[in-house]
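Progress note, sequence design subtask.
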């Protein structure tokens, strides 16, 4: 998921209009996937987060969100959802909000939840099928304990670097919503995206890179389940990098 802000006119509700870059739809979905989107997605929504639903950008009420658990985690662009499901299963004490604008990925995650959990779902999992910034803007300050940004679109051409998710605007929002000491995890197989992320986080000044040796960014996190994007990178000879930053 990648996008940018520009100076185009405001939306009808008065909120600034923002461009979004990236696919929202892929190949044709099965009947079951369409049915899951229509019948299951609404129940997993974190609440009124889109600008049409919540034009005043009122903060999310966290008390009853996915059971109101002690810790709140955010995954930005969950792809096929493998990581989201693994983290939700391994950490029942944490509430996870996953954001993914690619509707086919959302459908895959819903199908996986339905198959693995007999239709009962995961009680600590919320899904937003759209722009993560909608959710980020309405999360209370210092409310998030962990953020995952896993294999974001690298936008390799220099003229497209402004579309990368790691930018000054998004880092400012993350710094606002992350609690002191909260961790931001970034996984990517693109070395230039590693450099870009290190430059942007250092420029912001509110994130401390926790690596002390090469093994710290070359070795997956202990609870890392692997994803299809990582498997593809390894097949094609690219080395994944695992960056961890603490909110200062």
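Output:
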């Amino acid at each position: 998921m990648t996008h940018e802000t520009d100076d185009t006119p405001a939306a009808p509700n008065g909120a600034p209009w923002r461009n979004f870059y990236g696919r929202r739809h892929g190949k044709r979905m099965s009947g079951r996937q369409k049915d899951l989107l229509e019948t299951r997605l609404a129940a997993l929504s974190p609440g009124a987060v889109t600008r049409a639903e919540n034009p005043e950008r009122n903060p999310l009420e966290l008390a009853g969100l996915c059971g109101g658990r002690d810790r709140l985690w955010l995954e930005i662009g969950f792809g096929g959802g493998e990581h989201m499901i693994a983290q939700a299963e391994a950490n029942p004490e944490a509430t996870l909000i996953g954001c993914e604008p690619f509707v086919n990925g959302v459908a895959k995650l819903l199908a996986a939840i339905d198959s693995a959990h007999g239709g009962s779902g995961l009680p600590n999992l919320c899904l937003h099928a759209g722009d993560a910034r909608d959710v980020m803007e309405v999360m209370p300050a210092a409310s998030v304990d962990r953020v995952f940004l896993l294999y974001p679109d690298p936008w390799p051409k220099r003229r497209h670097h402004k579309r990368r998710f790691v930018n000054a605007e998004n880092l400012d929002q993350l710094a606002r919503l992350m609690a002191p000491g909260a961790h931001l995890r970034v996984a990517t197989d693109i070395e230039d995206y590693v450099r870009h992320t290190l430059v942007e986080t250092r420029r912001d000044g509110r994130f401390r890179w926790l690596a002390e040796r090469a093994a710290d960014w070359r070795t997956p996190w202990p609870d890392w389940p692997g994803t299809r994007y990582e498997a593809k990178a390894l097949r094609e000879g690219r080395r994944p990098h695992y960056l961890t930053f603490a909110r200062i």
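DSSP finds eight helices and nine strands in the chain. Work on this subtask will continue into the next period as scheduled.
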